[in-house]
Amino acid sequence: MRIIAMCNQKGGVGKTTLTRELGCYLAHAGERALLIDADGQANLTKSFFENEPERGLYEAILDG
Q1: pTM of the model
Q2: If you ran DSSP here, which 8-state letter would residue 61 be given?
Q3: By CB neighbour count within 10 A (0-12 exposed, 13-18 middle, 19+ buried), where does 10 fall?
Q4: DSSP percent split of the chain into helix, strand, coil, nearest 5
Q5: Distance CA 49, CA 61 (A)
Q6: What CA–CA distances, in Å, run from 35 to 10, 60?
Q7: What confidence tens digit (pLDDT) does each residue in 15-61 have?
Q8: In which region does residue 14 sit, left (phi positive, over 0), alpha (psi from -120 to 50) or beta (all else)?
């Protein structure tokens, strides 16, 4: 198992775009990929879903 973390305090450097594209590439290549959106704005999550998710990472961790 490999873990790749995308992090940078500066906004607008392409973290969300790179994370999404890498995850999609790995999935299309037959690899298993789990993307965790820990950003409070949840832009990565929003890029995959048409509607605003009802629960975020915080709620998922608390509720299990």
Answers
A1: 0.76
A2: H
A3: exposed
A4: 40, 0, 60
A5: 20
A6: 20, 14
A7: 999 999 999 999 999 999 999 998 888 899 889 888 877 877 888 88
A8: left
Q: How many Å apart are CA 59 and CA 40, to the nearest integer?
A: 12
Residues 6+ apart with CB under 8 A from 22: 4, 33
Q: Would you say the C-alpha torsion 39, 29, 33, 51 has a positive or negative sign? A: positive
Domain ranges of the chain: 15-63
**15 token code pair:** 């973290």
